């Protein structure tokens, strides 16, 4: 008889395709067996009455990362990974940000030094590129070879925006090496134009952030980003889609076969611009970009979540404390453009999605698994994670679907002094998180040591089923036989 290190028994297993009752046998951190009944096990975990799902893969988080202005996020790789684990996540992919003048080698070395000694979860990086110089472009093949197969560019923020030409260069290099380019899509000049006019009228309170970044700014930029990617037939991932119009563009282009992926975030489903109009400077807690919108947009985004427009619902965890170290680094009465941009949410991503999605009948349990884990694994090349199957890592979360919980700051286990989800009533809660067979969180207690997480080398993006787009002008058969070199 096979002797298992751990047996999870009596639970209801859910994957992105199926829900069934079975036991799981784990050996050396991997799922070794799934069967109706499994005996033995050095440790037996009773999951009776519980759901057993793949651990979440958080694919959008800012951990131990400086902003372009030099402001450090509140969570390091210890507190950030712990918070993620309490929220049912078993691995994550934060960003490693290159700022102008930095070499890619130095950036990766810096983040290795921040992550390896600290993280309790397995981790990888998306590389942010803000300075696509010739020297930087020459460094990128080495990054891909190491297994960092995605990176992010910006169409907004003066110190991050690389322009359309820079995007085309990055997209071309990415295509050559099978990498996936992520993009923050907002029209920079539209935003600056709005900021200038609001400031001239003295409209600088936090609530005006909601109108300073128009829906059209996102929609135009998404359309432009997609057009740039189509020109060179490269894969593109639109991050934090916040508008109905933006989601509709993604839906349309996916139907056309474009090599396109996208996500939205819980804040765009849970919060509205009214939250920015809280008394005093409380609205500063809810400043993020793109901004939260309105109830009609929430309803539209939920329909896109239901219909498969988005690969994932990611947190965009960007933790800045409600004090001089974070939100008010430029003073407690700073105008909204000078208030640190972002909000925390890595621990609440999955409880919120389960409660508002599964428990309220908006999405199936299988869709929850896909949106929380499986799709991220497939999209970002995370092999052997994201599902429950023999040979896969035993990255598992056990959920109590009947638990009732009121969200509080204490639940987050991060380094923040507020949560934007404070007071929300949540149905369903993760009671255990496992990473490679190790119990990380159990019944509200941390069980893992800092630094146990391993770097995940990821595979190239899988574009199966996405035929892409061939611009006539780049097709030798239609442009006088001329081959345009990438």
Automatic annotation (TrEMBL):
Question: GO terms for CC?
Answer: cytosol
Keyword Metal-binding attributed: yes
Record's comment on post-translational modification = Carbamylation allows a single lysine to coordinate two divalent metal cations.
Sorted alphabetically, the keyword list is: Hydrolase, Metal-binding, Phosphoprotein
Q: Single GO molecular-function term? A: metal ion binding
Family label: Belongs to the metallo-dependent hydrolases superfamily. Hydantoinase/dihydropyrimidinase family.
What is the name of this protein?
D-hydantoinase
Native source organism of the sequence: Rhizobium wenxiniae
């Amino acid at each position: 008889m096979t002797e298992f290190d751990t047996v999870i028994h009596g639970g209801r297993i859910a994957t992105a395709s199926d829900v069934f009752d079975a036991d799981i046998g784990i050996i050396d951190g991997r799922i070794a067996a799934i069967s109706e009944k499994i005996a033995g096990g050095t440790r037996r975990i009773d999951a009776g009455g519980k759901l057993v799902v793949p651990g979440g893969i958080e694919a959008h988080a800012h951990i131990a990362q400086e902003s372009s202005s030099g402001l450090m996020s509140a969570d390091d790789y210890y507190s950030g990974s712990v918070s993620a684990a309490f929220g049912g996540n078993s691995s994550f992919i934060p960003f490693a940000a290159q700022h102008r003048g930095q070499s890619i080698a130095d950036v990766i070395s810096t983040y290795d030094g921040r992550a390896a000694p600290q993280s309790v979860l397995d981790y990888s990086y998306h590389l942010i590129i803000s300075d696509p110089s010739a020297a930087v472009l020459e460094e990128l093949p080495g990054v891909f070879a190491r297994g960092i197969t995605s990176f992010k560019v910006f169409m907004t923020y003066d110190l991050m925006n690389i322009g359309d030409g820079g995007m085309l260069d990055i997209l071309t290099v990415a295509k050559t090496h099978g990498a996936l380019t992520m993009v923050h899509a907002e029209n920079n000049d539209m935003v600056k134009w709005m900021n200038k006019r609001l400031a001239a009228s003295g409209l600088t309170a936090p609530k005006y952030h909601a109108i300073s970044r128009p829906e059209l700014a996102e929609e135009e930029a998404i359309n432009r980003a997609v057009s740039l990617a189509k020109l060179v037939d490269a894969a593109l991932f639109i991050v934090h889609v916040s508008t109905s119009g933006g989601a509709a563009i993604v839906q349309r282009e996916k139907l056309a076969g474009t090599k396109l992926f996208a996500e939205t975030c819980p804040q765009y489903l849970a919060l509205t611009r009214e939250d920015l109009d809280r008394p005093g400077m409380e609205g500063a807690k809810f400043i993020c970009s793109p901004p939260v919108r309105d109830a009609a947009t929430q309803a539209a985004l939920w329909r896109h979540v239901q219909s498969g427009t988005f690969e994932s619902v990611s947190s965009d965890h960007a933790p800045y404390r409600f004090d001089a170290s974070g939100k008010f680094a430029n003073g407690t009465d700073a105008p909204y453009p000078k208030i640190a941009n972002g909000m925390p949410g890595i621990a609440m991503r999955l409880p919120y999605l389960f409660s508002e999605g599964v428990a309220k009948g908006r999405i199936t349990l299988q869709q929850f698994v896909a949106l929380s884990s499986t799709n991220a694994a497939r999209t970002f090349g995370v092999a052997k994670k994201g599902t429950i199957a023999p040979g896969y890592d035993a990255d598992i979360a056990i959920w109590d679907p009947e638990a009732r919980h009121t969200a509080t700051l204490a639940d987050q286990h991060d380094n923040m002094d507020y949560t934007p989800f404070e007071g929300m009533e949540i149905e369903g809660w993760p009671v255990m998180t496992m990473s490679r067979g190790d119990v990380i969180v159990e019944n509200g207690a941390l069980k893992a040591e800092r630094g146990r997480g391993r770097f995940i080398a990821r595979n190239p993006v899988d574009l199966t089923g996405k035929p892409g787009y061939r611009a006539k002008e780049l097709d030798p058969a239609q442009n006088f036989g001329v081959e345009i070199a990438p």
